[in-house]
Design brief:
Elements (H helix, E strand, L loop, with lengths): L9 E3 L6 E4 L10 E4 L2 H9 L6 H16 L7 H16 L6 H17 L8 H31 L7 E4 L16 H8 L5 E5 L6 H12 L3 E5 L4 H6 L5 E4 L3 E3 L4 E4 L2 H10 L4 E4 L5 E2 L16 H4 L19 E4 L6 E4 L2 E3 L3 H9 L1
Parallel strand pairs: 4-5, 4-7, 5-6, 7-10, 8-11, 10-13
Antiparallel strand pairs: 1-2, 2-3, 8-9, 9-12, 13-14
The structure holds 5-S-methyl-1-O-phosphono-5-thio-D-ribulose.
């Protein structure tokens, strides 16, 4: 049987007219590759979490806007931009919290303006080729960025350490290595024998279904725990560090990540376990001042009451609160690991220095 690590999370199809993704809603039971060709198919795949995780969503958006514009008939730059903006806004509306989505789409727009000299020099074919190259660069950079995050992250742990992670910030959320799992994969290559605890991550179980699957497939010592067990394993001294990914880092270092992350950070602080956030700079949003300004996605009640259960398990008609993310206060974060190094508090200053 093929190993899940041998499949690409997101790729351009050979004909460059489609995006090929692993349908992550079917994992770990079934590994199925699906092709996304239309704007609706791309939007649905992102919304339904067939492709998910901040970096992978960004790469999908970059490829998406390229393939949607590839066959445009726009004769003028203005016609091109009208069509581009309509498709960009549509893709951008698929999920609100992960900033990589708008980051990738804005990067593609900047490219269009640059290549055409702000519309003064419109050559359709040249522009489409440049868009293809840029979307492929976004993916290639993701791999390099994650590897560098892994190298910096690895300096924070030692051989034999216990590491806890929440949700999936692994290869399945990016293109290789992942963010929070990058130090784990690089350490594994060096024979570090980490023991990894994966929070199951209610309600959509990205930790149990995806992180546990990919780490276990890589031959890493992996243990799934329910979300309410993190205090128990930390109390026992089994966890030396927490690594999580993130969907958006605000300018003051507050971090939005999968719901339950702030619980883990709070518990880690109680037991003196360092809590690290792994964040490519594409996930840092200097225009969002604090965590309170981050738009937190609310999702369907059925994800809590029905999905992943054979039968509905909560009473019909009961109210459900289902935020997909929460915000971890920067005071609980021991370090933010980026591709340029490890940021330490005070984060507003460290982030400013990184960007200006
Ligand atoms: O709802 P999801 O599965 O897209 O949420 C994913 C997460 O919260 C990840 O931790 C985050 O995107 C970081 S992935 C590097």
């Amino acid at each position: 049987m093929a190993n899940i690590l041998d499949f690409e999370t997101v790729a351009l199809a050979d004909d460059k007219d489609a995006i090929v993704i692993i349908d992550q809603t079917l994992l770990p039971g079934e590994t199925k590759l699906i092709e996304l060709r239309t704007a609706k198919e791309i939007w649905d795949a992102i919304y339904l979490l067939q492709v998910r995780g901040a970096p992978a969503i960004g790469v999908t958006a970059g490829f998406g806007i390229y393939i949607l514009m590839k066959h445009t008939k726009a004769e003028t730059f203005d016609e091109f931009m009208t069509e581009f903006k309509e498709k960009k806004d549509y893709l951008d509306s698929s999920r609100p919290t992960a900033v990589n989505l708008s980051w990738a789409l804005n990067r593609m727009e900047q490219l269009v303006l640059k290549v055409t000299d702000n519309g003064r020099n419109y050559n359709r074919q040249e522009l489409i080729t440049a868009m293809k190259n840029e979307s492929e660069a976004i993916k290639a950079e993701d791999i390099e960025v994650c590897r560098r995050i892994g190298e910096y992250g690895l300096t924070l742990v030692k051989e034999g350490d216990g590491i806890l992670t929440h949700c999936n910030a692994g290869k399945l959320c990016a293109c290789k290595y992942g963010t929070a799992t990058a130090p784990i994969y690089l350490g594994h290559e060096k024979g570090y024998n980490f023991r990894v605890f994966c929070d199951e991550t209610r309600p959509l179980l990205q930790g149990a279904r995806l992180t546990a699957y990919e780490l276990h497939s890589a031959g890493i010592d992996t243990t799934v725990i329910c979300d309410n067990m993190s205090a128990s394993v930390m109390q026992k001294g089994w966890v030396d560090a927490v690594f999580v990914g993130c969907d958006r880092v605000a300018a003051n270092g507050d971090v939005a990540n999968k719901i339950g992350t702030s619980v883990v950070a709070t518990v880690a602080a109680r037991y003196g376990v360092p809590f690290y956030v792994c964040a490519p700079t594409s996930t840092i949003d200097i225009n969002t001042l604090t965590g309170a300004d981050i738009n937190i996605e609310q999702r369907e009640p059925m994800e809590v009451t029905e999905m992943w259960y054979e039968k509905r398990m909560a009473p019909e008609g009961v109210k459900v609160y289902n935020p997909a993310f929460d915000v971890t206060d920067n005071s609980l974060i021991a370090g933010i690991v980026t591709e340029y190094g490890i940021l330490r508090a005070p984060y507003d200053k460290a982030i400013k220095e990184l960007f200006y």
